[in-house]
Amino acid sequence: MKLWAKGYPIDKEVEDYVVGDGYLLDQALVKYDCRASIAHAEMLGRIGILSPAEVKALVKCLNEITGLDAKGKFKITKEQEDCHTAIENYLTGKLGKAGKKIHTARSRNDQVQAALRLYYKDELKNTISLTLRLIASLRRFTNKYGRIKIPGYTHTRKAMPSSVGLWAGALIESLDGDIGLLNFAYKLNDQSPLGTGAGYGLPIMVDRAFVAKKLGFARVQNNPIYVQNSRGKFESTIVHALSQVMLDLDRVSRDLIIFSMPEFGYYIIPRELTTGSSIMPQKKNPDVLELVRANYHVVNAYGAMIQGIVGSVPSGYNADVMLTKAPAMRSFEITERSISIMALLFSKLKVDEEASKRAMSDELYATAKVYDLVKKGVPFRDAYKRISSKYKGK
């Protein structure tokens, strides 16, 4: 039974359109909704809505659902719409009156927000952990190959001497900055929405601080309208942080695709990380890097999608915001898998020292020659012109 059912039938086509694939996405939220519901039930016990026996029965049943979900035995149906309905129906079916009480002092609006924020907190922590693992892989790569000189490029033309260590170090430093963005998104998300109802508070006193502490939130989000307005806004901030990680992976993928070409040959991608061609037997294609490169644009587009959705709605809850859940969840999936695959790649990536040495041609040292003259007292502009004259026609 739907939580909002009022005894009249809903047109089947309308029902299908409104539900969409949300019930499938919600499978990932079951354990988080159960956690939030346990804290909510314990709070209802503290304010006298539930008896100690009812709280105990609800907590036991919610833990039972979590266990079933972990085994893949708690499935949400399209008719139930979402995990929240599926869970409440299960509680009511098992416990009767106590199950019917669980939604006291709660709306699906703040209930959804609580489950999502707990999910986002876990996923942000996982993304940060994976990024640190990638940085560790890059450091090992740098320790092995960092001393090797390679050309540095500006405007895709040889510019000045560089090194594998300098190139990889740029990615390490940028990823460290990305972790700062992920931590900011985590801090923004780390506030409890429970107890704000549908966005205008509740006609009953509840202990919001107790629930926030039980769920591990750093603080309570105070304004109930802001709770609803923040749905999509928080997701946008999260996906922006993810997109910055993907931007770094996009750039390094482009570099590796180009500089592993036989025409350059600085980097060697092991064959077990490449794919082949159905027609050309010699091909070893860097598909994995091409897909990382493309997936930056997918995550970036998801961020634009979220901003577009919430940028057209007035204050308070509007059903539009339901459509921000899928792009946020999919952005996590793409980013986490991309980080993992790049950590694997750097654990196996090799550098061809001979090819790199051959590429270190004379023009890369032109600027150094200018400064050799400067050190001898030649004015910089005169030294620049003297050296540049040697490269006319090259």
CATH superfamily of the largest domain: Fumarase/aspartase (Central domain)
Number of helices: 16
Order of helices and strands: HHHHHHHEEHEHEHHEHHEHHH
Contiguous low-pLDDT stretches (5 residues minimum) are none
What would the average pLDDT be, to the nearest integer? 94
Kindly state the percentage of residues in helix.
55-70%
How many E-type strands? 6
Strand order of the largest sheet: 1-2
Number of domains: 3
* Level-1 CATH class name of the largest domain: Mainly Alpha
- Based on secondary structure, the structural category is mainly alpha
- How much of the sequence lies in strands comes to 5-15%
Please give the alpha-carbon distance between the first and last residues: 78 Å
What integer value in Å does the Rg equal? 28 Å
Q: Which second-level CATH architecture of the largest domain applies? A: Up-down Bundle
| Assembly classification | single chain
Main sheet properties: 2 strands, antiparallel
Shape annotation: elongated
Care to describe what's here?
62% of the residues lie in helices and 5% in strands. Helix 3 (30-46) packs antiparallel against helix 9 (208-215) and helix 4 (52-70) packs across helix 5. The strands form 3 sheets. The chain has a two-stranded antiparallel ribbon. The protein has a two-stranded parallel ribbon with strand order 3-4. A two-stranded antiparallel ribbon has the order 5-6. It contains 16 helices and 6 strands. It has 3 domains: 12-101, Fumarase C, Chain B, domain 1 (Orthogonal Bundle); 108-203 and 216-358, Up-down Bundle (Fumarase C, Chain A, domain 2); 362-391, no CATH class. The chain is mostly helical. It has helices at 12-19, 22-25, 30-46, 52-70, 83-95, 97-101, 108-145, 164-189, 208-215, 224-229, 233-259, 287-310, 325-348, 353-358, 366-375, 380-388, and strands at residues 149-154, 157-163, 191-192, 219-220, 267-268, 350-351. It is elongated and about 90 Å long. Strand 1 (149-154) and strand 2 form a beta hairpin. The model has no long low-confidence stretch (mean pLDDT 94).
